[in-house]
Design goal:
Layout lengths: L1 H11 L30 E5 L5 H11 L4 E5 L5 H13 L6 E5 L3 H5 L21 H6 L1 E2 L2 E2 L2 E13 H6 L8 H13 L15 H8 L6 E3 L6 E4 L4 H15 L11 H8 L5 E5 L2 H6 L10 E5 L12 E9 L6 H10 L4 H9 L8 H4 L2 H4 L11 H12 L9 H16 L5 H18 L3 E3 L1
Parallel strand pairs: 1-2, 1-3, 8-12
Antiparallel strand pairs: 3-11, 4-5, 6-9, 6-10, 6-11, 7-8
C-alpha cells in the first residue's frame, strides 16, 4: 500500500490535461522540429522548451556523425510534465531525453521514470558544473539529470526612481524595509517591490536564505521523508514580509500575469527580486518605460558578515526509462550544452545562466556587458558570486502540491486572516498529514 501511495502522490503532484507524447524510438526526420544532418545516424528524441534551442540542436547535429537529436517542444513546465506523466502511466510515448526543472526530478524518480546516469559517465563531468546545480540533480549517490541553467538571485532595481526619491540601494533586509517606507513617505505612486503569494520557488528561496531546509529526501529510501517547513527562520522571513504587506509598503499581485508584467515596466515596482534569468525576462517585456534606468545589485542579506546565496529555478536534461538507447541518450544529455558555441547561443539568445563552469569561468561570460543595464557587467558584479555560493537544495516528491499549499497559506496571510508563523504551522500540519496518507514515513 505504501508503494501505491507513493505513485499516487507523484501523479497527484503533476496535474493537468493529458495528451499524446512523442514515441521514444528513433523517428523519421518528418516528425522532428529540427533538421537531421546525418540521416544514417541513430536519433535521440528530446523534449525541451529552451529559448533558441533549435540553434543549439543544429550545432549538435552538425558536429556529430554518431548521433542526431530529434527535438520537439512538448510544452513548457507543467504542460510537458503532464504529457510525460501520461506516457509513464501508459508505458509508452516518452522521449529519450527530457528537459525537467530540478525541483520536479524527485516527482519522477519516485515513479522509476528516470535513469540513474552514474552508469553512463555522469560523474566524469561532475567537475564541470556548479556544486549547487549538481546537488539539485542528484539524490544520494545517484545522478538523475545533467544540469543546464540555474537561477542565482540578485536585485534588479530602477536607479532613476531611487535617485528621484533619494533612496540608497539597500544591502540588508532592514535597509530594504526602510527603503520601502521612504518611497511611500516621499509620495510615490508605486511601491518598492511586489510580494507574490504564488511565488512558489521564489518564496522558498527567501526562506532558504534564513536557513530553511524544508525537506530531507533520498531516492534510495523512497517512502521516507523529512518535513520541516515551520522552522523559525522561515517564520521570521514571512513575518517580515507580512509586516510590509500590512503597512501597504509592498503589493501582493500574482506573479507572471499580464498586469504583473505591466507593473514591472511602468514604474509600479521599483525593484524586481529576480533570478539570473530575470534580466532576460525583463528585457522581453513590451511597453517598457523608455526613461527607465535599470541596474543590478546583490540580493539583500540578513547578515552582511555572513551572506547566504540562494537560487530560484534551474533546469536539467534527464534520460527517461523509456529511452531506446540509454547510453546514447546519456551522451546527448551530457554533450548538447557541452560546448562554448552552444552556450553562447543559450546566453545571448536564450538569456540562460549556465551551470556549466567552463562557460561561467570564461573571460567572455565574466566580462559580458549588458546594454539594457547601461553596460553593467552583471555576471561579474552579482550573479557569479551568487551562483558560487549556492550549495543546492532537496525537493520533495510532491513539490507541486507543497507549493500549492504554500500559496494558499500565503494568500490567507496577506488577507489578514493569520500571521506568518501560523501560516507555516498550518502548512507543516497539512504536508505531514498528506504525506502520511500517501504512504510516506514522515520525520522532522
Amino acid at each position: 500500500m505504501a508503494a501505491i501511495g507513493v505513485i499516487a502522490v507523484a501523479a497527484a503532484a503533476l496535474t493537468g490535461c493529458s495528451a499524446d507524447g512523442a514515441a521514444s524510438k528513433s523517428k523519421p526526420e518528418a516528425s522532428c522540429t529540427n533538421k537531421i544532418v546525418n540521416k544514417e545516424a541513430p536519433q535521440v528524441t528530446v523534449w525541451a522548451w529552451y529559448p533558441a534551442f533549435e540553434e543549439v540542436v543544429d550545432v549538435f547535429n552538425t558536429s556529430h556523425d554518431d548521433v542526431q537529436v530529434c527535438w520537439t517542444n512538448a510544452g513548457q513546465g507543467n504542460d510537458e510534465y503532464t504529457k510525460f506523466s501520461t506516457s509513464i502511466e501508459s508505458k509508452s510515448g516518452a522521449p529519450d531525453v527530457i528537459m525537467l526543472e530540478s525541483e520536479v526530478l524527485s516527482s519522477f524518480t519516485i515513479r522509476d521514470a528516470l535513469v540513474d546516469l552514474t552508469e553512463y559517465g555522469a560523474n566524469d563531468v561532475k567537475d564541470k558544473y556548479t556544486e549547487g546545480s549538481w546537488k539539485d540533480a542528484s539524490s544520494g549517490d545517484a545522478v538523475y539529470a545533467i544540469p543546464v541553467d540555474g537561477g542565482p538571485m540578485g536585485m534588479l532595481y530602477r536607479q532613476d526612481l531611487f535617485d528621484q526619491y533619494g533612496i540608497p540601494v539597500p544591502t540588508t533586509w532592514a535597509e530594504f524595509a526602510t527603503a520601502a517606507q521612504a518611497l511611500k513617505t516621499a509620495g510615490s505612486d508605486g511601491v518598492l517591490v511586489n510580494f507574490p503569494t504564488n511565488g512558489r520557488a521564489f518564496n522558498q528561496a527567501l526562506f532558504a536564505q534564513a536557513g530553511s531546509v524544508p525537506f530531507t529526501y533520498d531516492s534510495t529510501s523512497p517512502i521516507d521523508i523529512g518535513i520541516a517547513v515551520d522552522d523559525q527562520g522561515s517564520k521570521d522571513v514571512l513575518n517580515y514580509w507580512n509586516d510590509l504587506v500590512q503597512k501597504g509598503l509592498v503589493t501582493t499581485d500574482d506573479a507572471f500575469t499580464a498586469d504583473y508584467n505591466t507593473s514591472l515596466v511602468d514604474g509600479t515596482y521599483a525593484v524586481y527580486l529576480a533570478a539570473a534569468w530575470g534580466p532576460g525576462y525583463l528585457q522581453g517585456l513590451s511597453d517598457a518605460d523608455t526613461g527607465a534606468v535599470w541596474r543590478v545589485a546583490p540580493l539583500p542579506q540578513w547578515d552582511t558578515a555572513n551572506p547566504v546565496q540562494v537560487n530560484w529555478g534551474g533546469s536539467t536534461f534527464a534520460v527517461t526509462s523509456q529511452a531506446t538507447d540509454k547510453e546514447l541518450a546519456a551522451q546527448v544529455a551530457i554533450e548538447i550544452f557541452g560546448t562554448d558555441e552552444a552556450w553562447k547561443i543559450g546566453v545571448e539568445k536564450g538569456a540562460l545562466f549556465p551551470s556549466y563552469t567552463p562557460m561561467l569561468d570564461s573571460e567572455y561570460f565574466v566580462n559580458l556587458e549588458y546594454p539594457f543595464f547601461g553596460g553593467q557587467q552583471i555576471n561579474k558584479e552579482v550573479f557569479l558570486t551568487a551562483a558560487a555560493g549556492y550549495g543546492g537544495a532537496t525537493f520533495s516528491p510532491f513539490q507541486n502540491y507543497a507549493y500549492d499549499q504554500l500559496t494558499e497559506e500565503l494568500y490567507s496571510m496577506v488577507q489578514g486572516e493569520q500571521d506568518g508563523s501560523q501560516a507555516l504551522d498550518d502548512l507543516q500540519a497539512t504536508l505531514v498529514k498528506y504525506a502520511a496518507e500517501q504512504g510516506f514515513t514522515v520525520a522532522k
